[in-house]
Amino acid sequence: MIINASNVNQVVTSSEGELSILKNVNISIKHGESVAIIGTSGSGKTTLLSLLAGLDTATSGEISLDGKNLGKLDEDGRASLRNELIGFVFQSFQLLPTLTALENVMLPLELVGDAKAKQAASELLARVGLAHRLSHLPKQLSGGEQQRVALARAFVTNPTILFADEPTGNLDSKTGRDVIDLLFELNQENNTTLVLVTHDLRLAERCQRTIQLEEGRVVV
Amino acid sequence: MSYFKLALRLLWRDARSGELTILLMALIIAVTSSTAISLFSDRLQGTMNQQAADFMAADLLITSPTKVANAWLEKAQQLNLKAANGAEFSTMLIENDQLLLSSLKAVSQHYPLRGYLKTRQADYQDEQKVYSGPKVGKVWVGQRVLTSLNLSIGEPLQVGELSLTISRILSYEPDKSGTFYSLSPRVMIHTDDLVKTAILQAGSRVQYLFQFSGEEAAIKQFSAWLDGKLSPSQRLLDVHDNRPEIGAALERAERYLGLSSILVILIAGVAIAMAARRYTERHFNATAILRCLGCQQNQVLSLYGIQILVVGLVGSSIGCLLGWFAQYGLFYLLADLLPSTIASASLLALIIGFITGLVTLLGFALPPLLRLKKVSPLRVLRRELEPLSSSAWLVYGLAASIIAGMVWYFTQDLILSLIIIGVGFVTLSVLAGLIIVILIAVKRFLPRLNLSWRLGVQELVREPKANVGQILAFSITLLAMLLSFTVRNDLLKDWQNQLPVNAANYFAINIFPEQVADLRLLFKQKDIPTGEFYPVVRGRLISVNDQLAKQIVTKDSVGERSIQRDLSLTWSSRLPEGNEIIAGNWQAVQSSHQVSIEQELAESLNASVGDKLGFTIRQKDFTAVISSIRKVQWDNMKPNFYLIFSSGTLDSYPSTFITSFYLSEKNKPALNQLLKEYPSMTVLEVEMLLKQFEKILAQLTQAIDYLLLFALLAGISVLFASIYASLDARVHTGALLRTLGANRKLLKKSQFIEFATLGFIASLLAIIAKELISYFLYQHVFHLSYQANYWVWLVMPVMVSISLGFAGMRGLKRVITSSPVQVLRDL
After folding, report:
1. pTM of the full predicted structure?
2. Do B294 and A76 touch (CB under 8 A)?
């Protein structure tokens, strides 16, 4: 198993007292598998994704990625793991606004001092159909183009796992379909494990498996 | 390397978008002012170091109130040292019914041993370098002597009882220091003529100069031989360890300029902190993305640290360059107090200015920057997550440490530094508290205001703490400028205006004992009201209860100033007018070796009734016991004394007498007769002294004002930092208002009102603080009654409000010009 979560609970403190976001979640995902996490708004999907990706730590339970227990790593340790294993695609694209498309895609490789960052980034941007937009800033790109840049950035490190959080949430339906097609193509080419958070059931159906969350619990 | 390139790339993009402009501007202002000061001080010190020999006109100089022992001169001769001697003192000149207080210098054959003089043989002729002084029977004078006394070259000049021929105009003298008396025009004669003038007698106030030059080894040997032989009143100056000083006024100028530049750094630091905070907050999202992509916490800090460092290097470099030009302004404003030739600056001065910039940046930008380390990668999914603010201890502690360090650097005195820091802290705290109170009070009035006022003032009072920095920056700068203006323009005039109508307007010194009775008679005959005649012996205070006084006194205190020079010591059986006994017993002063001491001097020396004070006069030591402490009314235009001895204590020393008198305009011709009959007497005209003092004060305060301009610029950078920090929210609010129907005129008006109100509050506080401080100074320090300047109450708030109103409008232009549709779409 590439991803393992056992007895995971997530509790947050708010002004109304303690709030249980996730309750006793158990998940296992195989290498190369594509999994959709679905549920209504407030069901805990994004929280689960953030825990699985090592962006946050669980209140209790154990999560491991590629055999490494996230709970035993400090923040920097999880950061290293993210760079090594994970690619991200977000609903709001999350590109650095002052960097060009090329520079945004180069970023994960530059952070580890890869000398071939530029070449790899150029190739990937060409792959996603943006060879003519390398020097454009995010504000000069359409939503679909920005998401394609984000896809290129996510795949430039040849990640083992790709986490995508509502990747078409800010796109119109046609652009969204194009982006999703591209996502699955790249996923297949790289044999990446895909964890996709979505409330769109049609999108979820394109994945091999679906995990449904309801009020913080996995619905069997 | 790719990491560094990434940091530079991010920096370049941010710089192009204007993110770092405010931070850079504030840093440049801080570095410009501190570099200007650093260069100014460095060049002065360099002048003293390099040209020490020229400034002494010798390799070694001894100054003494009396002639030195012959054995010293014989020793110098044995060591094959060349010697010259002279004397310097004030004397009155009277020609063509004009009077002039001059500074007379008698020089011997070999003067100057080092350096040269510059003279002209006629008006408007070229200057010539000369390597010896005037010959016997001749006199050289400064240009001002000729113009003030309506004289020309070739005409006679009466100096005391001797008539000498003016042969040259003296335009440059190497060893004319920047002391007060150097502002009197120079008269130079040969030492052989000095005795014939009959001006000097035992007890006269004179400084003798003994100059030596020769091989370095011989000079060192002579200097070592003299060690232990000099009395406290004598000074030895050489080119290495005991260089001549730049002068008390200039030394003080250096210190106050340094402290003014700290004000600039403090205000600029506030702008840097605000800009850095804004910069880091705008990078929370980017940092979260970087953390998501695998960037570790320290890597984040390095990435932004490199950027801030590069900004620091660029800002400090530009600031150093501007500071280089700015220093010339200081030299121009203080020209009269400075030597004519100034050394070039050393690289060290520039380095100090450069490092000041980096340290300021570090101190004020580091706390906000550290927040970036704490940005959670989860922020990519949860925008509301913000890293905790830096600890207040870190924020204020770092900034306070830097400011405290700089204060100590400029004062070089721990106690004075603590006082300045303490007073500064209290002042800032009180003002900040008042600002918050005013803003809260204004908030209560909001509902009663019309729309444009409500919109404007609301921005100001919404977050009182956030606006304190802006208002405080302007208040402090305006306060400093107002106080400087008051000191320069009002203080002396107010003091003069409060003197009684017939208060003495002349002082006469160097009156010999045998002249007193006749002078009293002459004054009476001429109907010239005079005060008491007091005997004076020049002596130096050296110890308190056998402990050296210099170990007791603090820097810049009355005590320090009193032990660094010879004091005028007197004796009297009656308590002088304007003196009040506050401790001890005046009657006790009747026993021998008792002394009555002035209150402030006693406090500065930690001395009380019964303590023993040690003195030296003409190399003879003696002690006296404090029998009483007096409060003295210093400004009663009568001779006043720090120390009054009992009769019999100082009898064995030669003395002169001092008095003061009132001379009306119609009686002025009587002065000519007086001076002709008593040529050894020196008469000081109070008005002329005040004019000279006013001139020095004007120059010092103008130099300080020059630096305060930088503080004002720093204040403006604080204003723009604040505007920029809130710009996004304001643009959003502006778009909403315009969508709802508000026109541009309304928005512009509310912007103007907001910043005009800020300016009004700042100037109001500055005026109130200035009135309180001035009141305190006038009543309790100068003992004058204070009259507020009402025109300042009117003019300043109006000027400042209008200026800041327009500045604010300019800064918020984007709020008016941004398209509402675009803004709302971008949300």
Report:
1. 0.79
2. no
